[in-house]
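LAB NOTEBOOK - FOLDING QUEUE
OPERATOR: T.R.
BATCH SIZE: 2
PURPOSE: Compare the predicted structure-token outputs for two unrelated chains run back to back under identical settings.
PRIORITY: normal
REVIEWER: second-year student, initials M.K.

ITEM 1
FIELD SEQUENCE / FIELD STRUCTURE:
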Amino acid sequence: MPIREVPVTEITKMMREELKSVFPKIDFSVRKTGYDSIYVTWTDGPTQAEVQAIDDKLVATSQALVALITDLKANGALT
């Protein structure tokens, strides 16, 4: 199976789902802006630091996957 990059639209969806899971009573607006940016807004509820922590977790996971895929390709395990 060929490896593909995850489109920002899918990452936006994952961010929305994760925020809803952690803060079920808060309405978030999660939108793709530009080529590779996501803009998140909300009223009341969590602090910016709490929402940033969720974003940081998704970014770290994404970076780890990219590093793993790069390593596997370099070792010939993936094409």
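ITEM 2
FIELD SEQUENCE / FIELD STRUCTURE:
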Amino acid sequence: MKILFLILSVWTGGDGEDSYVFTQPTFTQQSSCILYVRENFISLNTHVNKMYGGEGDLPNLFYCIREDKMTLLDKGQQI
């Protein structure tokens, strides 16, 4: 079974409940995902802020989550 990692962002300009999932790109290793977020933080952050109508420089939180664990977010479970 191939494990994929996706980028999950939590928009910090709201109540902490607003999240955005990047479905592209996907990664087969968490370390590759983390490196991508580090190298592309500004563009990822700007995109999330635009999606929620926030300020361009408002820093958001980014996580690299296994795709098969994403469904747990809907159920309020810690992943």
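REVIEWER COMMENT (ITEM 2): Helices lie at 30-39, 41-52, 71-74.
FOLLOW-UP: none requested
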